Amino acid sequence: MTWQADIITLFPELFPGPLGISLTGRALEKGLWACTAHDLRPHGKGRHHAVDDTPYGGGAGMVMRPDVVASALDALPGDGRPVIYPTPRGRPFSQRDAKRLAAGSGVVILCGRYEGVDERVLEARGVEQFSIGDFVLSGGEIPACALLEACVRLLPGVMGSSDSATEESFENGLLEYPHYTKPAEWEGLSIPSVLLSGNHRDIAAWRHDQSQRITQSKRPDLWAQYASRKPGI
Ligand code: ADE
């Protein structure tokens, strides 16, 4: 069955964008997933199809109207797919979320612009809010691409066995170990000698140790979670 992504946006021409090339692009051609971008503008109000209005309570910027957003959401088949709204105010999006979404039949993504979307429609339509990091972008389209790529690469048949996901960062709660390739010496820099030893057990132990060190120094939050699950660390 094709994993279906429907995206509601004021800029439908941005899709599939970067997802149309390489791994996700080939998967799109093979019909492993489908991507349909829906223009929000025709759902707008009045002669100018306004999609936003000034915020109650005052303040800067404009807010996307709940009736306009609901009209776009309700025009899609109500087939139980999760509806996602990327926003810096959302829960941090994680590999676990990507796995859960990839295991379903697809997603609907609502891309905001301006100051955001009226809270009532998010609650009334059970919309899940996700952030892709603690920084602010001008709209949800780039986060939508990031979220979709994270899901699509996990769909059955998308990644070959050579680029399997089992050794990736986050798979075991740790960041991945560093990688090296030829030449063995470059600008006077050599590679860790264990990688030339041919001893697979030593290599695995070195990689695991590197994963732990890197996670501990770069992501103390992940390290604390990992260590709490492994008494003795
Ligand atoms: N929209 C704007 N900034 C965002 C972010 N950091 N994550 C998700 N959606 C956003």
Automatic annotation (TrEMBL):
Reactions it catalyzes: guanosine(37) in tRNA + S-adenosyl-L-methionine = N(1)-methylguanosine(37) in tRNA + S-adenosyl-L-homocysteine + H(+)
In short, the EC number is 2.1.1.228
Q: Which CDD domains match?
A: TrmD-like
Q: Which GO terms describe its molecular function?
A: tRNA (guanine(37)-N1)-methyltransferase activity
Q: Name one GO biological process term.
A: methylation
| Transferase is among the record's keywords | yes
Subcellular location per the Swiss-Prot or TrEMBL entry: Cytoplasm
Q: Which residues form the signal peptide?
A: none
Q: What class of enzyme is it?
A: transferase
Q: Which domain of life is it from?
A: Bacteria
Limits of the tRNA methyltransferase TRMD/TRM10-type domain: 5-224
Q: Which UniProt keywords apply?
A: Cytoplasm, Methyltransferase, S-adenosyl-L-methionine, Transferase, tRNA processing
**Where is S-adenosyl-L-methionine bound in this sequence?**
G112, I132, G133, D134, F135, V136, L137
- Spell out the Pfam families in the cross-references: tRNA_m1G_MT
* PANTHER family attached to this UniProt entry: TRNA (GUANINE-N(1)-)-METHYLTRANSFERASE
Q: Which family does it belong to?
A: Belongs to the RNA methyltransferase TrmD family.
- Subunit relationships: Homodimer.
Known function:
Specifically methylates guanosine-37 in various tRNAs.
Name-wise, this protein is tRNA (guanine-N(1)-)-methyltransferase
**What is the source species?**
Candidatus Kirkpatrickella diaphorinae
GN (gene name): trmD
